[in-house]
Each structure stands twice: as C-alpha cells, then as structure tokens.
Description:
heterodimer; A: alpha+beta; outer membrane lipoprotein receptor (LolB), chain A; 11-stranded antiparallel beta sheet; 3 helices; B: mainly beta; 12-stranded antiparallel beta sheet; 2 helices; 14% helix
Amino acid sequence: MKKIPLILLSLLLFVLLPLYTYADDFAQLRKDAASIKTVQAAFVQKKIMKILSRPLVSEGRFFYAAPDSFRWEYLKPVKSIVLSGKGEAKRYIMSQGKMVEDKSGGVQAMRIVLGEVVNWMSGKFDLNPSFQAAVTEGKNTLITLVPVERNMAGMIEKIEISVVKKSMAIKSVRIIESENAATIIDFSHVEINKAVNASVFQDVE
Amino acid sequence: MKNIRLLILTALLLVSCRTLPTINPVLPQAEPKAATCPSVFLQEPYRLIHAIEFRLAGNTGGAIIGVTVADPATRFVSCAIMTVEGLVLFEAEAGSSLKIVRALAPFDSPELAENLIEDIRLIFFAPRGNIHAKGVLPDGAAICRWREKSGDWIDVIARRAEGMEINKYSSWNNWKRRIRLSSAEEHIYRNIELTAQETFNYSLRMTLIEAETLAGSSKK
Lengths: 205, 220
C-alpha cells in the first residue's frame, strides 16, 4: 500500500502548485507562498480506462490551511477522507454506515508525503527531485510535470495542470497513467485565503 | 490440565476445519423449489463496478474500487482495481490464460492475481462441473452441490431471509470460500461478502456502484 499515497501527493500538488507557477523563478515562488493561508475547492474526478464504457465519476472537496493542515474528501461514490495536521495523517473510510480509520500501511507512508507537501507550501519545488516541471503559456497556463524517478515509471507518465491566468484559480488536472488510462480532475469554487473552520481538519463527519 | 488443553485444541480444529454439510434429499412434490438449483450466476456479459472494503487476516484493510467485465458464455474476465483516488493498482484479463496488464504492490504477486480471477469466476459464473447432489440442508435451505474437474466442491445455497450463499471446498472437503449475495428483492450483486481461507485469510465487502449488460459483446 506504500504507493497509494503517491496519487494523493499528486492530487495535492495539483491544487497547490498552480498558485506559484506563474512566477518566473523559485525565489519568487517562495516569496509568493508566504501569502497563502488557506485554499478550498470542490472537485469532480473522472477516471478513464479501457475497461470502462464511460468515465467513472467521483466528487469531493479539498481544504488546506497553513502551515500543514489539509482535508482531501471524496463524497461519492465511495466516501473517504484524509485528514492531516501537525505531521499526523489519518485516512477514514465508510464501513457499515460509519466512518472508520483505515489501518492499512498507506497511512504510514502518508507521513512521508506530508513532508513533501510542507515543502511545496513553502514554495520549495526545486528541492523535490521527483518531478521535472515545464510551463506553457496559452489561453490558460499549462504546467506539465514529468516524474523523473524510476520507481514512478508505470504509475504516472505525466501530469498536466491547467490554471486560469488572471485569477490564478486551478481549472483542471490530467494525470496520464498510460496510453489507455487517465484521471481528470475539474475544480470549481476555488477560494483562496477564505477562513476555514479548524474542525474541518479534525472531524470526519 | 493436559486433557483440557487437548480438548480445547480438538474443539478449535473442528471449528477451523469446516467441511461439506450433509444434504438431505427432498421430494419434488413436497417442496418444488428445492428441486431447482438457485440461480445466482450471470446469464449474459456484464460490466460491474463495486466499492470494495477489504480486510486482511481480520484487521481493517482499506477501501478500493473494482471494475469487472465478465462473460459467462466464454468465461472471459477482465478486471481492474483502483484506489479511491483513481490510481490503478491492478488490471488483468483472463480467458484461457491470465494476462496481467498492470500490477502494483500489494497486488503484484502472481498467486494473488490467480486467486482474484478465481474469486471473480466463483461469484459470477456457474460451476463448470456436474451437479453432484441437490436437496435441503438441516436448516431447510435449498442447496445444489457441484463437483468441478479439479475435484473442488461448490455449494450454492438459497436462504429465504439471508439471500444466496456460495461455498467452495477443496477436493479434501476443506472449506475455502464463502460468498454471500444480496437477498432476492435487490440486485443480486448489490452487496457481496467474500470470506477466503488461504495462507493469509482475507475478506471483501463489495457494494455495487454501477452495473450494465454488454448485450451483443462476447470475448474469448
């Protein structure tokens, strides 16, 4: 289960990274990062695979508060929540009508992931050797991330993040896993630096 | 004290080694339904998507999503397992042979892949062997017993209140799998509970997200 959090790490990167990539260099990114206190958004995730006749659609929401609190929540079709704060991460799944803690090994690996997230929140993207990033300007800003680590080969080919230029709001994310498999996440209602109740990062219900 | 320990050990062995239950024959005119085998298997190609809660050796495991394409005519199975976040952990096709398209840990062992395909076939396809016996269990439930070419036994049981049950036993009569399906009023594959006795025991609780027939498609 150690590799499961990798996708979560990628998902978090999608939401947080675009807030910085408009700047020209990493020093500017680190400077800009200091102004971001909270992020919240709704998302619709579409899974595309050869075996599926139509995309499998999931819906959820995301919350972040500096320095290290986040909540990544799926509302349907499978209810699941990852809560993190102060270096601790817990995942909850729906079991027989109630949310229970996921005791799989993936939760332990998530603690390592969180260290990376904190780096990103500080704008330290150049410290993470896992992705090679490129920015393309067009109608929207497109950030392409290509994994450089060999152990990611066969899991993620590349990640494409589309960001609205003026508002800097994240628009969509495409995770290309292979020729026949991709995950597309469309974000909506993105709000930056709007107050988020502390209970969001503590309560599973 | 030694005798008590021996008694406890014997009792535990008896409990853990569940074997084939006795089938009582029934007169068809007395209980006509008991003379007909319970129908729990796919009759046409289907695509099914389930939310799956898995447990390994009794502890809570986690939640995954499973996609199954199954054709009862050819016994072809195509399946994929992904995390809730969408990462595909396992993908395979099995007709006359098993082709693993993708397998990430902990789904990267060939034994697990074979068990997974066998479990899917056990749930959705009628047994390939001959019907060895049919009748009723001591609790009154209707049962049909197949013997597969491998020598394994498969019991399909219909209980009025609890729904359908499939049990698999080895050729040595040792219990290996129990599958419980939804009661007849619902979609039969809405809720599936699978309990497996292997070197490392596991159980799956599957809840249907989507099901569709694949009319006109048949794959070998």
